[in-house]
Amino acid sequence: MMDRSFVSRGEVRPARLAGRGRTSRPSQPGAPLRRPDGPRLVLRVLVCALVAATLWAGCGGRGGAPDERRAPSAASKDSATAPLPPVAGASGPRVVILGDSLTAGLGLPMARAYPSLLQHRIDDAGLGYTIVNAGVSGDTSAGGLSRLDWALDGDVRILVVALGGNDGLRGLPIAELSRNLSQIIERAQARGVTVILAGMEAPPNYGVDYTLAFHKAYPALAKKYNVTLIPFLLERVAGIADLNQADGIHPTADGAQIVADTVWSALKPAIDSDAQRAGSRKAPSQ
Predict the structure, then answer these.
(1) Is 120 a catalytic residue?
(2) Distance (Å, rounded) from C-alpha 105 to C-alpha 92?
(3) Domain range for residue 12?
(4) Residue 281: inside a domain
(5) How far apart, in whole angstroms, are the C-alpha atoms of residue 188 and residue 127?
(6) Looking at 76, 101, 137, 178, which residue is catalytic?
(7) Is 83 contained in some domain?
(8) What pLDDT digit, counting tens, does each position of 34-49 carry?
(9) Does residue 268 fall inside a structural domain?
(10) What is the DSSP code string of 28-91?
(11) What is the pLDDT of residues 119-160, one digit of tens each?
């Protein structure tokens, strides 16, 4: 469970604090959400980096990912074989959220993790979709890619990709991050799965150039593959003490509610669109 460092180190936090542009509902699934450009983008990332620097220092600086030091490692050694939580109503269409400890809900009861909250919203709306929480603490983009085929087993209609925080925390090459995320998106789209990409941010300790390049990787991929982009998974949560656990990294139950709001703004239109397509396929031809 290493994601603590991931979010904490400012990867997630930087963007959150500076991120005034809330995730807005795209006009149609597949359209990237708006994000600041030019000087505003640079300012936003720099502010995020400053916030992240504080968080990074508070979490122990470069001394390794907090998850690695404090959390059990049972799930992180071989994410390709880590079991998914039980899936209720597995025969119906699925929404898979492929992520790390933020998605796994580290430090929270499973019922309070944001994927579970999204399931409640789906149920309340009378939609027949099942959320699969495919979050594994400490996972990098490479780890997510290694278990993709297994995660996409069954009638998966939508894939939310919430990976990269640990890549940024460890200073892994951005080209590697982009390559891994590209393969995840391509392989999902080849199966006819709708993809939603959740952006992350990198900590500032690797320099402004790295931080900016990391920041730009997500919108570039969203544009390339025409997928919906959630600019920052931890929008309105990262860096806010009352919304994060004692580690200063992972959201509290209240913070998870806000993360669910952020993801729902992109997920609900995608589910509606998929349901319409499914209905059209089932409708008798005239």
Answers:
(1) no
(2) 24
(3) 3-76+90-276
(4) no
(5) 22
(6) 101
(7) no
(8) 455 555 555 555 545 4
(9) yes
(10) STTPPPP---HHHHHHHHHHHHHHHHHHHHHTTTTS--HHHHHS--TTTTTGGGPPPPP-TTTT
(11) 999 999 999 999 999 999 999 999 999 999 999 999 999 999
Catalytic residue among 67, 167, 247, 261: 247
Q: Is the pLDDT of residue 6 over 70?
A: no
Task: Provide the percentage of residues in the chain whose pLDDT is more than 90.
Answer: 61
Count of domains forming the chain: 1
Q: Rounded distance, CA 179 to CA 141, Å?
A: 9
User: What tokens were used for 239?
Assistant: 């860096």
The arrangement of strands across the sheet holding 156-162 comes to: 130-135, 94-99, 156-162, 194-198, 228-230
> At 272, which helix (H) or strand (E)?
helix 253-282
The amino acid at 121: R
Which residue of the set 250, 261, 265, 274 is catalytic? 250
- The residue among 23, 26, 52, 48 whose CA lies nearest residue 35 is 23
Alpha-carbon distances, residue 62 vs 6, 56, 68, 171 (angstroms): 12, 8, 12, 11
CATH number, domain with residue 9: 3.40.50.1110
- Establish if 130 belongs to a structural domain: yes
pTM of the full structure: 0.75
Instruction: Specify whether 215 is catalytic.
Output: no
Residue 261 is among the residues annotated as catalytic for this protein: no
